[in-house]
Amino acid sequence: MATLRPQNSVNIFGNLSTQQEKGENARLSIFAGAIAVADLVKTTLGPKGMDKILQSMDENGEIQVTNDGATILKSIYVDDPAAKVIIDISKTQDDEVGDGTTSVVVLAGELLREAERLIDELKIHPQIIVAGWRLAQKAALDALEASAKTSFEDDDKFKEDLLNIARTTLSSKVLGHGYKDFFANLAVDAVLKLKGSTNLDMIHIIKKIGSSVLSSFLSEGFILEKKIGVGQPKRIENAKILVANTSMDNDKIKIFSSKVEVTSPDELAKIEDMEKQRMLTKCQKIVDHDINCFINRQLIYNLPEQYFADHGVCAIEHADFEGIERLSLVLGAEIVSTFDDPERVQLGHCDLIEEIMIGEDVVIQFTGVARGEACTIVLRGPTEHLLNEAERSLHDALCVLSQVVATDHRVINGAGNSEMIMAKAVDEYAKKTAGKISIAIEAYGQALRRVVGIIAENGGYDSAELVSDLQAAHYNGKTKQGLNMADGSITDVEELGITESLKVKKKVVQSASEAAEMILRIDQLVRAPPRERTSDPRYG
User: Fold this and answer.
1) Mean pLDDT by 10-residue block, N- to C-terminus, for the chain (540 residues)?
2) In whole angstroms, what is the distance from residue 136 CA to residue 115 CA?
3) Cβ neighbours of residue 503 closer than 8 Å, sequence gap 6 or more
4) Which of 19, 41, 195, 257 has its CA 20 to 30 A from that of 281?
5) Structure pTM?
6) Which H helix or E strand runs over 379?
7) Which of 51, 78, 263, 255 has its CA nearest to residue 173?
8) Which residues are annotated as catalytic?
């Protein structure tokens, strides 16, 4: 009589070292990795979130002090596949809208925590949970859009909305503690110069250690952290600029393993004279472009530097790749490497080039550039760590503001108000839905409320009391109520000016839901080593 072998004993993998986890074990493993990543960053959420120290394990042991979710998650190495999915959504959030990187991870983690409870305690199938989440997400986003407003047609009100968004974005960063009004104005002024563009390359941020953070300023045009050559004019008006990436040392033979043998000093002198003459010819071709400023990505040696000084041309050397590409963009120039046809070269223009002092450093300022939207933000501060975190904070604010100005002008209330509006809409939708799917919908609303609770917990307040008070206020028609993190109460957040971008919040909800759904649908985990390479019999 034939007997059936148990299914679990069948090994379909050729490599015996391949590992697999199925069913409950796989789901527990996947959930644990994703929730662990969310727990790592959730203490940084909100205006009173804590910071993390990231220390490199290399020989230098460099450290970063930050509470930026994307920076934290990009800096850690994880082996868990679900954790990598969560980190990827944080990176995507950072790339697309610039802010909400911590919120999206925390919301995804809370959704998975609710899903784990539904599966373990109520034995609800993951597909039912996924179906409920999709319905809940639609109800939440519809309510969110219904609560949005815009004042784009009124310039003064729209600028006030931008300032409120900038303050809200910066409030959870290092610049939010005493500096958010100052830097909110700085960020809004810079973004409005873009005139509806989202090209943040036009806004150059440089960091200079020293002085106070409040000594930071916004400069018109472009600032290049280089010096003008020796003996050359330090101030040029109505500049005509040639931007190049070319070798300005003597044109020596640059062929690998080549050498030239000479039999007398006279022959060597002739070679040196020819090299010198070739360089002078090249310099003459550059001057023939009718320019008064030459900017090169590579070094400029003494001979061409002296030639340019004699001809009244200001020469700037060693402008690195990023610097020279930004310069060519804001000056309206093209980067050239050959100089035989001046008619086809597009020169850059600006009203004034001059050297200025920032702290103890000399830099070059370009004013009145061809692209009028270009500007430079100079950050000052006592330590490098503070400057790096300030740059990350300001970059997030610039990203959010540029999206609001250029794409979706609508804004919503922050401080947990939008999450409670969405949670209320989801709860009401769940009451109208029959079957187990309604439990999954309710769990989605509970996850949204947990995000508000985490913000309160990070401020040291009683999250259960605040969330229940806030929920009661919304059900009583006070739909503008949110958390006041200054004193641990609930208040009208519209009067406080706590405003967020609708686009950022929508992206948080959508990305967190998609990531949690992807992880929830996994029922098997296979870890397989790469296939071993064997010799090809055709080649012995």
Assistant:
1) 49 57 72 87 87 80 81 84 86 84 90 89 88 92 90 86 89 79 89 83 86 86 82 85 83 60 76 80 88 87 86 83 78 86 87 86 86 84 86 88 86 89 92 89 92 90 89 88 86 87 90 90 73 64
2) 14
3) 97, 403, 404, 407, 408, 410
4) 257
5) 0.82
6) strand 375-381
7) 51
8) 68, 101-102, 396
